[in-house]
Write a structure and sequence with these properties.
about 550 residues; alpha/beta; FAD/NAD(P)-binding domain; 5-stranded parallel sheet; 17 helices; 20 strands; globular
């Protein structure tokens, strides 16, 4: 007998960011009851948690958004090319308000455990405020939601504020005139440093690994530009769905560095550099991510353009990436990072090669060479990508299998959506999904998941059971594609995209590098074929 009538909700999802809002739209459209839990005090996901100075999107505004409503696309107006967290947060509220999503959202709700019930086929979701049941449990927690906190000796002794950048004090922080340490030099620090340095007494960046960084080239939205965007939204959305990184970019149509005269290569690179964004990578040449020599040429160009902005030759040397190809790590976009090191109140410390951190003290940070005094320490140390949210929450599938235990050696999935051993459980942008413009991937996943649930309801199936063989095949395909990319080359590709920033886990392939557009096609093909990666079963007994 179907367990449908016994559940509190058809769907319970965790996470009220882009994924949660997208699920509310598509689930409600399919006639499903849905409740979205979030431990935060507001919706917004990453734009609720990441409120550090300078926090902004690295995707251009007009395709970093949800596209399920043409009316919303026309009615919302962006102010700048790369919106800051405040504007992105206002946008999320605009969507929730206009689409009347609030009745489906429950905030300030910490989910403590999620357990699949073998006898009823339901998921039991335990929160601090009570228990709920659902037929379909969905992780909408995002691919970068669980912070990585380094284990420096003495962290509990520091007398000033010490926190992860994704947990910036909600009441704000007066850092004017203060001595500030920032540990980490990835995308967060690239955004944060130019803003903080303007008013801080001094800022010291503790860098483990130098990054390739590209120009953002921020600009204001104009009435003319906005009119052009809104007149062409169908084409923009189609471009995103058909692009390798889910972005509304044009293609260089087979133009390669290998087949272009050197002078012409430099002319094209110079022409595209001032335009900013990831367009520099995807609209110049087709082979810079696949041909090592082409990659070297572009990498050297990027370093010359960025490091010439830094006056001190020793700082330039420390900021020079070594041992890995350009784009083997996801490059941040620059809003003034390099010139900030010319300020007298900014210092760079190389903890990867010159003076590692020994401990945190009551008054600062001690390295192998000296002690630095600080008033505030910010841990800009990144996230446990793709698996962090799911592993932080005890999720138990068939036979009590704990998801974090399943992923101890290999973070396997089927297309980043299903996990073998976890019936009626779905993930949005889970491990081994592509790394791409997230709102596009999120909507494609939400559509796919809801279509699977619609099939189950229409045909009277109780259980959606992911096939172990299908998971093994996806893991193998993902690993094989990774081996063919520049991501697998170099002796220092210690990327968070491989989970290499985790002390308690071995690096593993967390991303499908076959192209977001190819991945979206695979989702559609799977749905059209009736979801062959899973078994649809009745409840036993």
């Amino acid at each position: 007998m179907s367990s449908e009538q016994q559940a509190d909700f058809d769907v319970i999802a965790v996470g009220a960011g882009f994924a949660g809002l997208s699920l509310i739209h598509y689930a409600r459209e399919a006639g499903l009851s849905i409740r979205v839990f979030d431990k935060a005090s507001d919706i917004g996901g990453t734009w609720t948690w990441n409120r550090y100075p300078g926090a902004a999107s690295d995707s251009e505004c007009y395709y970093y958004c949800l596209t399920f409503s043409k009316e919303l696309l026309q009615d919302w107006s962006w102010s700048v090319r790369y919106p800051g967290w405040e504007e992105n947060h206002r946008y999320m509220h605009f969507v929730a308000d206009r689409c009347n999503m609030w009745p489906h959202i429950q905030l300030n709700t910490q989910v403590l455990a999620a357990d699949f019930q073998e006898d009823t086929g339901l998921w039991r979701i335990r929160t601090a405020g009570g228990e709920f049941t659902c037929r379909y449990f969905i992780s909408a927690m995002g691919m970068i939601s669980e912070p990585v906190i380094p284990e420096f000796k003495g962290m509990d002794t520091f007398k000033g504020p010490l926190f992860h950048s994704a947990r910036w004090p909600s009441e704000g922080l007066d850092y004017a005139g203060k001595r500030i340490a920032i540990t980490g030099s990835g995308a967060t620090t690239v955004q944060m440093l130019p803003v903080v340095a303007q008013t801080a007494g001094n800022v010291t960046v503790f860098q483990r690994t130098a990054n390739f960084i590209m120009p953002a080239v921020q600009k204001q939205m104009t009435p003319e530009w906005e009119k052009e965007i809104k007149a062409n939204y169908d084409a923009i959305i189609a471009k995103c769905r058909n692009h390798v990184f889910g972005m509304a970019f044009d293609s260089p149509v087979g133009r390669t560095i290998a087949d272009t005269p050197p002078d012409e290569v430099q002319r094209i690179l110079e022409e595209h550099w001032p335009r900013g964004s990831f367009r520099f990578v995807f609209e110049t040449f087709d082979d810079l991510l696949t041909n090592p020599e082409s990659n070297r040429i572009v990498g050297e160009f990027v370093l010359r353009k960025t490091l010439e902005q830094v006056n001190d030759p020793d700082v330039r040397e420390m900021l020079t990436p070594k041992g890995y190809p350009f784009f083997a790590k996801r490059p941040p976009l620059d809003h003034g990072f390099f010139p900030t090191f010319n300020r007298e109140n900014v210092k760079l410390v190389d903890i990867g090669n010159r003076e590692p951190i020994v401990e945190i003290t009551e008054t600062g940070i001690r390295t192998t060479k000296q002690h630095y005094e600080f008033d505030i320490i910010v841990l800009a140390t990144g996230f446990q990508a793709y698996t962090g949210g799911q592993e932080a929450l005890p999720i138990r599938g068939s036979n009590g299998l704990l998801l974090r235990d399943k992923w101890e050696d290999v973070s396997g999935s089927i297309m980043g959506v299903f996990a073998a051993g976890f019936p009626n459980f779905f993930m949005i942008t889970g491990p081994q999904a592509p790394f791409a413009n997230l709102p596009v991937s999120i909507e494609e996943n939400a559509i796919y998941i809801v279509n699977c649930i619609k099939k189950m309801k229409a045909e009277g199936h109780d259980l959606c059971v992911p096939k172990a063989a299908a998971e093994e095949a996806w893991v193998a395909e993902t690993a094989d594609i990774h081996r063919q990319t520049l991501m697998a080359q170099g002796d220092k590709v210690h990327s968070w995209m491989m989970g290499a920033n985790l002390a308690n886990r071995s690096p593993r392939v967390l991303i499908y590098f076959g192209g977001a557009n190819v991945y979206y096609d695979k989702l559609r093909q799977s749905a059209e074929a009736g979801f062959p990666e899973v078994e649809f079963e009745p409840l036993a007994g």
